[in-house]
């Protein structure tokens, strides 16, 4: 007669101690292992998981901004040569600096605060450019779209992190010049377009980096197996 295979159900049903003892240590080992796995999975940073849902939306806004940044001045490459020698510029525009080493040293809190400040600053300049173009009878629909995406990006950052109002966030509007003709408006359009492209590249790299260091990839893989 073949002996019955041992199972957890037999532990509950069989009363003789001899029926339980042979597998008790193995059963307890697997139970402890399962408990440890559950504890570790539940101890993942909750704040990181809350960030993950926003990263995709932020990247979408940044990509939309990148597409619009190429259309702000609506000039062909050969036409841009006429604006290379322009002597005036907007010193109030964010001057972004980023290297591979800089990205590796990024911290979530500081990065979101910095990105929030840049977003607010670019929105101020885009809104100013929209009014300037309207006053000299130039198309301004692109600026309206860019302003909308900057506002949505700013709102996402606020919901995700609630950045504090510090030096990274402009407290007052910059002293922007008066635009009196279409040529000046186009010069400023070219400069804002170039800076906005740099901002979009920087933001996308930062968001992708924060995506990984916030354990979002781990969480997505784990949730896909549930």
Automatic annotation (TrEMBL):
Protein name: Interleukin-11
PANTHER family: INTERLEUKIN 11, INTERLEUKIN-11
Stored InterPro entries: 4_helix_cytokine-like_core, IL-11
Residues that span the membrane, as ranges: none
Any one cellular-component term (Gene Ontology): cytoplasm
Gene Ontology molecular function terms on file: cytokine activity; growth factor activity
A Pfam family annotated for this UniProt entry: IL11
Source organism superkingdom: Eukaryota
One GO term (biological process): positive regulation of MAPK cascade
